[in-house]
Amino acid sequence: MDHAYPGAMEHIDVVWARDPFHVLISTVLSQRTRDQNTYNASKALFAKFDSPKEIAYADLDELIELVRPAGFPETKAKAIKEICRRLHQDFNDTVPKDIDVLLTLPMVGRKTANCLLSYGFGIPAICVDTHVHRISNRMGLVNTDTPDETEIALKEIAPKELWCDINAVMIRFGQRICLPRRPRCEQCSVTQDCDYFASLHEDDICKKQ
Q: pTM of the prediction?
C-alpha cells in the first residue's frame, strides 16, 4: 500500500522524530485527538518541562493548561505526571522497552505501547488504531473483532520488516482515501486486492461469467 500511497510516512518526522520519552508522552497526548492538537500540546509541554523528573515534580494545574490543546487535559495531565513519576523513581528516567512493563503505565494500552516500540525504539511492532483495524478488515486482510486481534492477525501475514510502516501508511490512506464512510474507491489503486470493492461489484462480476 505504501507504493500506492506515496508520502504516507512524511508526518512521522514532524510528530514522532524524538527519543522514546518524548514519543511516549506525545503518544499519550495523541489519544482521541488530531495530529495538530498533539503537536501543539507536545510543543507547549516540552518547552516548559523536558524530562521525566521535571514533569513528575511539576504542578498539576500547570500541566493541565499545557496539554489542554490535546483535549481531556485533566485526565491526560494526571496520567503523564504519574508516568513520569514511575519513569523517574522506578526506571532512572529511562523508558523501558518491555511491553508488559509499559502496559502497567497509566493510559498505555497495546496501541500506545506498540507506537512507542516502533517509533521510539525502532523495534518491529504493529500499532493498531481505528484506521488499521477498519482498513485491514474492510480489505479482507484479516477477519477480526478487536484491535488486539487485528495486531495478532497482521503479524501472521505481514513481513516483520514492514511492521513499523503499517500504522503510518494506513493512517494517511484512511484519512484521505479509505474513509470510514463513503470510501473513495474511484481514487484507490489497490481495489484489485480489496474484498469491500469486490463486494460492491459482485453483480457485475457475475454478469461477465
A: 0.85
